[in-house]
């Protein structure tokens, strides 16, 4: 037991690396604060574009969603960071990670928004159009408010996955929480920094998981 504590829960090492972990956590928070809203916004735009019934636009959005859902996010990130400079596009490490994660997560958010929009009965849409609202006004004032309520649990679940996905940024040396923890592990030859990083993720995300379970139970009870 002493050996386990010495190698995995060493409080002397934890005190030594704690400031570094907090700086990594700040980068993770900044990355999440940028990627989540952008992923939601792009996903919503893609889903709205699909709802207008224009065949060419529907095919283009379907290709966007299918390609990005099937393409590995790690490879997408490596491409954004290492390959774009060869095409004359220079991005900072932070912006390359943002670009890759927004492209990936927006495809999943788009599917959630699309399912929510399609769950609204067509009769409501036709009734709204008969009152003089155009397609965009009907979407904004009638369809989306109801759809968002229905898909809230799925949106929160995707947001949770997006936050965890930010750990991929360690691959391109962005000093987010996992990257800092791995560097600290290498410098101290001790797994305590990695255990601490995992516990930080757990403490921050567990309340969101409980809230998600609560919303899902409420949704099932309302049916």
From TrEMBL:
Which Pfam families does the record cross-reference, listed alphabetically? BPD_transp_1
Q: Transmembrane stretches, by residue range?
A: 31-54, 74-103, 191-209
Q: Which domain of life is it from?
A: Bacteria
Q: Which residues are in the ABC transmembrane type-1 domain? A: 25-213
The record's GO CC annotations read:
ATP-binding cassette (ABC) transporter complex
Location comes to:
Cell inner membrane; Cell membrane
- Carries keyword Transmembrane? yes
Q: Report the function annotation for this chain.
A: Part of the binding-protein-dependent transport system for glutamine; probably responsible for the translocation of the substrate across the membrane.
Q: Which family does it belong to?
A: Belongs to the binding-protein-dependent transport system permease family. HisMQ subfamily.
Listed PANTHER family = GLUTAMINE TRANSPORT SYSTEM PERMEASE PROTEIN GLNP, MEMBRANE COMPONENT OF AMINO ACID ABC TRANSPORTER
Q: What is the protein name given in its UniProt record?
A: ABC transporter permease subunit
